[in-house]
Amino acid sequence: MGRISFPVLCLGILGFGILYVPMAVMVAFSFNAGKLVSVWAGFSAKWYASLLTNEQLLNAFGLSLFIAFWAATLAIFFGLLIAVAFVRFGNFRGRLILSGLSSAPLVMPEVVTGLSLLLLFIGMEATFGWPAGRGIDTIIIAHATFGMCFAAVVIQARLRDFDKSIEEAAYDLGARQPFVFLSITLPVIVPAVVAAWLLAFTLSFDDLVIASFVSGPGSSTLPIVVFSKVRLGVTPEINALASIMIALVAVSVTVAAFVMRRRIARGG
User: Fold this and answer.
1) Separation of alpha carbons 49 and 57, rounded Å
2) Which DSSP category does 2 fall into?
3) 24 class by beta-carbon count within 10 Å (0-12 exposed, 13-18 middle, 19+ buried)
């Protein structure tokens, strides 16, 4: 195996350092005893205890989890339908239009997407009386709308590599749809479906721009609350919240890598 050259190694360390050193500093200052986030006043975990009593942040966190869960679930449902249509139905009528519609949100600025969805909800309210204002339901719809495009790309890539001979063998044995898809195809592509769900969940949980357009009073997600607080100055509670999220992500990535490594070892 070739060795990594010293300049490449230095560039890699520099690149990751720019990303992770500020995170490490933020985690360290989450244990700062003082209110100032730039002056160390001693070690203390009081801001984590204070975070547990901050109803605004806790409610926003729970709301973000709720919205992300349902938005990702809806995104997976529609993304799976789009992927199956592209892979299994060939050059059907309207394929080019559907391809453009499902690909546009991937490259469209979030400001444009958020503004267009806001105008849509306003028009729907004026015409049908629903949704009555902007709230949780409009955020879920908005997040599912652009999340399904990302989900379709992930699932579509897996379906293209699917061995169709397995389905053909099921057809020869007398199986028919939807039994073949639910009992044979879907279990095989479950890893891609789970990956797409996690991607849609993350996109929804992290979104700020689109949620700012389609949210209303009482439906502020965690990114909106954090952004509004940061504009007035970073507080130690925000550092504590960010540190907890970093820890959760680190644990999740570590567990996923461990499970994947064990599967590879068993397969070998």
Assistant:
1) 13
2) P
3) exposed
